[in-house]
Design brief:
Length: 720
Amino acid sequence: MTKATVQGMDLRALFEPRSIALIGATDKSPWSLNTYQNIKDSGFGGSVYLVNPTSPIVHGERTFDAISGLPEVVDLIFVMVPTTVVLPTLRAAVEIGVRAAVILTAGFGETGPVGQQMEDEIIDFARSSGLTVLGPNGNGFINAAENITPYGLPIGRPLIEGTVGFVLQSGALASSVLQFAQSRNIGVSFLTAMGNESLMSVTDVMNYLVDDPNTAVIALFLESVRDPVEFRRIALRALHAGKPIVALKIGRSVLGARAALAHTGALVGDNAVIDAAFEQMGVIRVRSLEDLITTAGLMASLGGGLPGPRIGVVTPSGGASEIIADRAEDEGLVLPGFSEETIVKLGEIVPAFATVQNPLDVTGYVVIDRTLMRRSLAVVAQDPNVDFAVLLSELPRVPAADPSLTMTAYGESARNIRETDVPTVVLSTVLTDVTEYGRSVADAVEFPHVVGGIEHGLTALGNAVRWSALRAAASATPEELDPFVAPVDFETEPTGIWTEHRSSELLSRNGIPVVPSSLVGSMEEAQERAAAYGYPVVLKAVADGLGHKSDIGGVRLDLRSADDVAEAYDSVLATLADVGATGAAALIQPQRPSNGLEVLVGVVRDPVWGLTLAVGLGGVWVEVLADAAIRVLPVSVADVRDAIESLRGIALLRGTRGSEPVDIDALATCVAEIGDFAYRLGDRLQALEINPLMVRGGECEALDALITWSETSSETEEVS
């Protein structure tokens, strides 16, 4: 799949046209005037035609009555006609050979059923005719790298070109994003607001930008992810291509119960799944527009991420040093102590009253000796304990009395930064606009990008480090994402809630280690099976649809004699009768030693991302720590091991106070096999929970299991 075509759509004709026609151009519409002016101001080298059947002159230029009267077949039409005229306009364009359209017009699916019907008609026509459509209800796009800007809102000039491509699911935010990027001297290669995504989606544009040589970083504002499988595939393409994706995904919500799995459902919330999914894909998730733009700008300036978390900081301010130290800790960045050699060298540079430490405050003496910062930076960047350096500095806002001194000072600083042994990031103290004068100085001396403000700057630094780590650890490739898996065979149609006995049988038949168990229908049979297993044993309640047995006192432990079994059986069956349970029976199992650790392994179906695996400490630790690591299926053993290593309770698994450590590799393999099994269960699986999975050293064994299936269409009809 090439840059030119995505899912059969010709994106080159859309985003790289050499001729454009504005259909419905009129002096009465600011959208029309903005679009026309933006195209003309961009230096677009192709033809621009205005189509208006009633006004011979629009925007001071000659118009054409109809698209059929144009002197050539244009690559792109920009449609601004009334809602009811959009489809006839598209038909007329396709008849003469037009292959791409931007529909600015609103009033379609966003307005309700009538509008949606009209939008569906456009979709059907576009698909049948091969027309590539962006919109409707969109502003158009800015292809700054190619000087093509058919965009309906004002664009500030000069438009700063760069390597960040923005794809936004909000037209109203597009201008603010563009304005902030320009104010921070962050160059844009591409920007579009998607509108209603009737035919073309965010993933289509992402795919285009992964292959776009003018784009180094992709920045997304997402309200929803319409095709998670395609999103994941393209995100992995970008990761392996070395193109960071930074995303602001809104809609952080708290999840209620998922199916019947109280424990797993409580641990796996919508927001946690988004975080996990993005991490697996190598997508950096941010929480604000400022962080979206600042992080994208930093990563574009670096050509990727940063090599590690250890930073060496040079500042002219003690207060700034303290703020940086706090924020670095927030972001998981490390401020290592300088080596002895570095301390000696810095002691020869900074004033005697300065303290040589990291962050390094060269003090206000920098006003007297303007070389302090850059000489100190050269030493800090050589320290073997440092992965990258940070220089706290600002671009000038207004000309000094002698501008030549400014140029000389910034030129020398820029040269020193380019020559440092490790990457150096320039960070401003606060988030302020870069002025035209500051930009002119930076351009003249090739001063590096200045990241805006300590608060958002440290977030960006942490994001850049995390992205590099995610890329280094990436195991799945787009081709390996969704391998063929053999589905599980069922003896009976899966439906409703499968309690422990049926769930355990299914797990065992498919290679998952499960504690032996026997379903018994009488006290005598219970005693017989207990004797066969050997005491002590466990007796559990069984009934149709009974999910959590312990909630009704349906689990009896440490039964050491036939009398214990008899008493437990009678008690449990009486409890089931009291609650009106049907299919009442009991399950007998050998009781396992208590010297292992209990692990919870659960799979739930997220409404967007599909089957999602959660692993955490089980037993009482579920309630105490609420500690789970989440991954979207399918997963590899390496994915699961990373998830386990991220748990807050990992020390318990590694062994504490003389307890036997868990073989993490063996546990990761077992959990990955459970995840693979759940994935093979297919679309009917709603939830699966093993709680606990007992782990001793390198041995794993499921002691309890529960599976919930989604309703079939016939079951849903019966309920309704």
